[in-house]
């Protein structure tokens, strides 16, 4: 990815050159301006998003730097600005911050200082944008109705979701990666009385403790280095709505304690504040960790676990509901074909067979990725096996089983696959090991729609 574009405005040529050299060496794109007038002109002539950050001196000869900042903020409110002030002019820094600058540095500054300030500002900005993008995505009116399934396994889960959505209970969504945890969390919200308020989401594993806390609870100005202004947290923004806590199993003990307080007392204290705020939030949490085990081993608070896990929605992996593969594949095929305006009618029978027999360790997400790729690579109007990056022998790599209860069929199917693989797909030997007749084995292979390799010496041993 290309690094960010920085606008630098300073009337001292030496400073401009120094900064430009430093940022270009770190692969940033840089544009420099010698005075406020040319900077304003550039911004007026440009467009939203054509620059990522502005580094601006507050003392310039042609125009008061504060005046420049005011005009910039009016033209481009979302553009993060870092101001440079001379030693002893802290008042102008304070004023700049009040006007919406993100941070300030005092000249002369060491290289590391200016780099870290710029990088922090860009990271905060990215987080803000990500939240916004996610919000818009999830606010699409059809987001809750886009859930595709035909299997009874998933129907049960879906019906439970709709039913519990109406209550106000906190919900824990479990499931392997890519099974649709976030999608289900969204339908809980959109099928609940809270649907008029916000559904916000945060990935607890992706953020450092400090950032997670400040994102969740918000912070007061001066709460930590870099906290130049006060900021609302997601709890406050989602007030009245639903907050999705993704990867809850990765939350530290200190954040766990704070979350427990929010759930029990319905109030929280923003980082650096002294007074608490009250909120009304429904929590949906998700994890692909075994939370029971985390609790037993002392890494996750039991009381928090019970508060979050009033109702569990357990999403079955795709391989345990193979009937859903075809409708999902068609759904994604349509979606990506429309997107690139390619006419594809459907799947060649061998392609369908291959997809149905694959074990999809990455579940629906993997299927979606495979379909996107297939649409791009397909040559005719049908998807053929050669554009599917999945191989039938992978069916035999049974993933480690957790302690969930599953049906005998699934175990039977996986066991047959395992033995087939170990014998190099030698059917007679497989039947012998399994203690069933060759005919029964053939029947089961057909029944479970297992795709065996069609080439190679050991696959035809009739
Ligand atoms: N039943 C379904 N119908 C339609 N799309 C689905 C379905 N299940 C999952 N998806 C899609 O698959 C992708 C993965 O789903 P989602 O992000 O909800 O999974 P997840 O369980 O949160 O995954 P991870 O554990 O990797 O975060 C998303 O694009 C989602 O829209
Ligand atoms: Mg997810």
Explained architecture:
- The chain has 462 residues and is an alpha/beta fold.
- It folds into 4 domains: 5-126, Response regulator (Rossmann fold), CATH 3.40.50.2300; 140-314, P-loop containing nucleotide triphosphate hydrolases (Rossmann fold); 318-390, Helicase, Ruva Protein, domain 3 (Orthogonal Bundle), CATH 1.10.8.60; 393-462, Homeodomain-like (Arc Repressor Mutant, subunit A).
- It contains 18 helices and 14 strands.
- The chain is globular.
- The two termini are 54 Å apart.
- Mean pLDDT is 86; it is low at 393-398 and 455-462.
- Bound molecules: adenosine-5'-triphosphate and magnesium ion.
- Magnesium ion binds at residues 181-182, 246.
Summarize the helices and strands and which ones pair or pack:
Layout: E1 5-9, H1 13-25, E2 29-33, H2 36-45, E3 53-57, H3 65-75, E4 81-86, H4 90-98, E5 103-107, H5 111-139, H6 152-166, E6 171-174, H7 181-190, E7 199-203, H8 209-217, H9 234-237, E8 242-246, H10 253-265, E9 267-268, E10 277-278, E11 282-287, H11 291-296, H12 302-308, E12 311-314, H13 325-339, E13 346-347, H14 349-357, H15 363-377, E14 382-383, H16 408-422, H17 427-434, H18 438-447
The chain binds adenosine-5'-triphosphate (ATP) and magnesium ion (MG).
